[in-house]
Specification:
The structure holds three protein chains of three kinds. Chain B has twelve helices and two strands. By secondary structure, chain B is an all-alpha fold. In chain B, helix 3 packs across helix 8, helix 5 crosses helix 6 and helix 10 crosses helix 12. The chains are: A alpha/beta, B mainly alpha, C mainly alpha.
Chain lengths: 273, 309, 375
């Protein structure tokens, strides 16, 4: 068994060319009971870019990610992914179409080791069924080893080899965020959604995380949408930024454009509506 | 007319039996509302309260204490026992598990159930002890309308009255008092409640005490009906489907759920039983609850839960 | 110095993924299996202490093995997949009665189709396995609500299974072949021409079943499927967003768990009890199994064995020890004490060590690995 199987890079142009729109959100509205979390928002994410979604607390950013990966179903609007209009779906189907994500409050599987957590990201790529696993012999074992090799590459890349067998519940926060990124990367996603990947991190950890994000985009050509509060990070990393406030889109453009936008400044400084 | 009379009799008997289920279910709702703990030990607490009451009563009556005084003293004694057990449970079982998830707390109350059942029988004995606090004879109603009238058990009526008084009292306690408000805060989030300075251990003691007293009330009614015995603990299990139908947090829900289950299982036994074999009372409530769950996963009265991540 | 993994370098993923990656563990397991398969029967044959009489095999080791198998099944569902079950007793009953029906021949008149389903009496081994299979099918049926309801609500669904099947096996006489007393007897235990009769043979039969299923369980939980179960247990929403299908993960857990519990039920009835009534599988059995899993360790195969051993030995200890030191206590008092000790231990473990005896064991091993150094 060759150990150095590289995780297969996702090739740009699987149905979508670089720079083309990978995912488009059109006139999406979402409400819970009387609370309108998202109001008539439209924007798109292009293949190979890093797209930031920013806005004050409660602006509907996380809800937006939840809509994109099928966890919430918008009452109105259309989502087009890879050129095809998407109907209401279960989240695991979004996952099987190549959408992976991390969470605002780390959502790791606390009872499992780092290795097992990242291995769960390979679930969709594993084919062997119940009986094969019961014997753990032949094809099932070979499959397990093949995916283990791929996961070990991610572990090396994220520099978490030393905590490979440690239960994730006891890891410091920064490392947990890294394991979570690893778990999402193990899915070899085409679109990676990162919900505040740097929340609660110190400067050094933020630099590490920024480096990982850029490498993921450049080496694997993964499209990334991220929510982040640290403006410095957003300005440095992202190609385009969409700004939400009270569930509405108030600006969309390059970091520089957004930075100078009066509506954005008002939203952040809290001008009365 | 005979057919309708019989139907009415079964229905009323079922509804009144349902009130008794509600009495046990109320104890569950109380603790769940106030601490987020699903208290599996409620049935064991009914047994403990019943045993403490009936044994002290017998002890005093045998020594010549007048019956009315013995009843009062017996109730006080049983109340004290419930207070002690509430303190012990708070101190040694649920107290150390503050901030744990609901399933862990649930399993700890299963542990508490076994401790209480073992201890109660070890201390007070494990026979069947008859209890006579309420009249158990029957009334015959509407004798002019139906031949033979409709048979209604007086004890069931007493049970209904007591349940009504309890519910009113508890509703006032929860909505109007400071302790009641604190209770609701604790149920929502242990950590948050602690951080605004609510003394969680005191609150939990109060809750378990109130639940213990509700158990005592339930024990007086059930004990009169069946005698105080171990099988009373299975009432706790009957209260589970009541809660599923009524919702874990709703006091009126517990009442309605109890009535539905009580009436449903009696009617099913009488009208369905002959076709599929008797004794369906044994599982009817659970299967009914399961059917309700399949239709509405949050129960009939529960609020829809918005899942977040 | 004995328990040290230093110097054992793994050069392949295959070696790192072995069931027991540390050599000393492998040696210990082989020794234990040798003892169980050869040592115990030899000792029993020559009446060597503590196997001087039949009692040890018949009343302790055989029920221990069967309950350990059931506990493994329950642990897969509760400990690995996080779906609480208060109805395991019912699934043991389904295994037992299905095996009984298959071994005595199934005749089900389907009047409305104008025909009848008839299966001739099957040998014991296929009957037991089919018993497990029936339990798995019913397990899946009762698992379906778990897709919509969670936690305590699910516990009620499993209670519904418990009470419903209690009733079915008491009231529906077809399952007991219309035996007037409601009690039925196991067929002759004949496996490929060999008849299992003595306690030693019964013990070996159970041991083979338990060993095989324990390995199957261990393989499942360390593979892809086991990771899906644990992911559902730890954070079901995140698991679904990772592409894990809750439908598949939960129902496989219900199926595998019920299958093992069902086989254990068939063994309990056929090999341990011989003749039984529905009461053998009532709600107390369900609690007993749940307690084994909590005390032994949620999410641990080893823990299932430890928990089964503890729950089985506790009443015997509480009965024997006071007698031995000259304090006679009544049977009733013993049973109350068992209640108290079990309950107290559950509370204690939930507070102090939620992963039960198995965790204490692994902490001990960790210490031993470093001994005599503290770090």
């Amino acid at each position: 068994m060759k150990a150095d199987v590289k995780p297969k890079p996702v090739i740009a142009g699987q149905g979508v060319d670089a720079g083309e729109v990978l995912l488009a959100v059109q006139n999406v509205s979402l409400s819970f009971g009387g609370v309108r979390a998202i109001r008539n928002v439209s924007f798109d994410i292009r293949k190979g870019e890093i797209r930031a979604i920013i806005g004050p607390n409660g602006a509907g950013k996380t809800s937006m990610l939840n809509v994109i990966n099928g966890f919430y179903h918008p009452q109105e609007g259309v989502i087009t992914y890879k050129g095809r209009q998407r109907s209401a779906m279960r989240p695991h189907i979004a996952a099987s179409q190549g959408i992976a994500r991390t969470f605002q409050n780390v959502a790791l599987f606390k009872g499992m080791s780092t290795l097992d957590n990242i291995m769960t990201g390979r679930t969709l790529k594993m084919r062997r069924g119940l009986l094969a696993h019961a014997l753990h012999f032949g094809p099932a074992k070979r499959e397990e080893i093949r995916h283990r090799a791929a996961v070990e590459h991610i572990i090396d890349f994220l520099e978490i080899a030393h905590i490979r067998k440690a239960p994730v519940g006891k890891l410091p926060y920064g490392l947990q965020k890294r394991v979570e990124l690893g778990r999402a990367l193990a899915m070899e996603p085409e679109l990676l959604l990162l919900d505040e990947p740097m929340a609660g991190m110190n400067l050094e950890e933020k630099q590490d995380m920024s480096r990982f994000i850029l490498t993921v985009r450049d080496a694997f050509n993964t499209t990334i949408a991220l929510i982040e509060h640290d403006m410095g990070v957003v300005m440095d990393l992202s190609d385009r930024v969409v700004v939400l406030d009270y569930g509405q889109k108030i600006a969309d453009g390059t970091p520089a454009e957004v930075q100078g936008n009066q509506a954005v400044i008002d939203a952040y400084l809290g001008v009365a509506h | 007319m005979v057919v309708f009379g019989q139907f009415l009799e079964v229905l009323i008997g079922g509804l009144l039996a349902g009130v008794l289920y509600s009495l046990v279910a109320l104890g569950f709702v109380l603790i769940f509302k106030a601490s987020g703990v699903f208290n599996f030990a409620q049935g064991a607490m009914v047994l403990l309260a019943g045993l403490a009451l009936v044994r002290s009563l017998d002890f005093m009556v045998a020594r010549g204490v007048p019956v009315w005084a013995a009843i009062v003293l017996g109730l006080v004694f049983a109340g004290l026992i419930m207070a002690i057990s509430a303190w012990l449970i708070e101190r040694f079982v649920v107290g150390p598990l503050v901030n744990q998830d609901g399933l862990t707390l649930f399993m700890s109350t299963i542990g508490a159930t076994f401790i209480i059942e073992g201890a109660a029988q070890l201390i007070f004995g494990s026979d069947v002890y008859p209890l006579r606090l309420f009249p158990t004879d029957a009334w015959f109603l509407f004798e002019s309308a139906f031949p033979g009238g409709i048979l209604v058990n007086k004890l069931d009526v007493w049970g209904g009255l007591i349940a009504g008084i309890l519910v009113t009292g508890l509703a006032i306690f929860f909505q109007k008092t400071k302790t009641g408000r604190a209770l609701r805060a604790v149920a929502d989030d242990h950590a948050a409640a602690q951080s605004v300075g609510i003394p969680i251990s005191w609150i939990w003691f109060v809750v378990w005490l109130v639940a213990g007293l509700v158990a005592l009330v339930a024990a007086t009614v059930w004990g009169t009906k069946l005698g105080v015995q171990f099988s009373i603990t299975f009432l706790a299990l009957k209260a589970l489907p009541v809660l599923i139908i009524g919702g874990f947090t709703s006091v009126p829900g517990a009442i309605v759920g109890g009535l539905l289950i009580g009436a449903g299982e009696k009617l099913a036994e009488v009208y369905l039983g002959p076709f599929i074999g008797g004794g369906i009372e044994y599982w009817f409530a659970y299967v009914l609850a399961l059917a309700v769950l399949l239709a509405r996963p949050q129960g009939l009265f529960g609020e829809r839960i918005i899942e977040r991540i | 110095m004995l328990y040290r993994e230093a110097g054992q370098f793994k050069t392949t993923y295959s070696a790192d993924m072995a069931i027991f990656p540390i050599r000393q563990d492998r040696v210990a397991l082989i020794l234990l299996l040798l003892f169980a398969f050869i040592g115990v029967p030899v000792m029993a044959t020559f009446h060597i202490w503590p196997l001087g009489s039949d009692y040890m095999l018949r009343a302790i080791l055989i029920p221990f093995l069967i309950l350990a198998l059931a506990a493994i099944g329950v642990n897969i569902l509760v400990g690995y997949c996080g779906q609480i079950s208060l109805g395991s007793g019912a699934f043991m009953a389904i295994g037992a009665y299905s095996a009984y029906k298959f071994s005595t021949g199934v005749h089900l008149p389907l009047a409305w189709l104008g025909t009848a389903l008839a299966i001739p009496p099957l040998p014991v081994l296929p009957s037991i396995l089919l018993g497990g299979l029936m339990a798995a099918v019913v397990g899946i049926l009762f698992g379906i609500p778990s897709l919509r309801i969670k936690g305590l609500y699910l516990a009620v669904a499993t209670l519904a299974a418990q009470f419903f099947f209690d009733w079915v096996f008491i009231r529906v006489k077809w399952f007991t072949n219309y035996a007037p007393s409601g009690s039925v007897s196991a067929p002759e235990l004949n496996f490929f021409g060999l008849t299992v009769n003595t306690s030693i043979e019964r013990y070996l039969l159970c041991l083979i079943f338990v060993t095989l299923f324990a390995f199957v369980a261990k393989n499942l939980v360390r593979g892809n499927l086991g990771r899906q179960w644990m992911a559902i247990r730890d954070m079901d929403i995140a698991a679904e967003l990772m592409g894990i299908r809750p439908f598949y993960a939960k129902l496989t857990a219900f199926a595998v768990s019920s299958f093992m519990v069902g086989v254990a039920g068939a063994l309990w009835a056929f090999v341990y009890l011989g003749a039984w009534e529905p009461l053998a599988f009532d709600i107390n059995r369900s609690f007993q199994l749940l307690f084994m899993v909590i005390i032994g360790g949620l999410g641990s195969i080893l823990g299932s064995f430890l928990g089964a051993a503890f729950i089985l030995i506790l009443p015997i200890m509480l009965d024997q020890v006071p007698h031995a030191i000259g304090v006679p206590i009544s049977v009733e008092t013993v049973s109350h004490l068992v209640f108290i000790v079990t309950g107290a231990l559950i509370c204690y473990l939930l507070i102090v060590e939620p992963h039960g005896f198995a965790k204490l064991w692994s902490i001990g091993k960790e210490k031993l690995r470093l001994w005599p150094y503290p770090y």
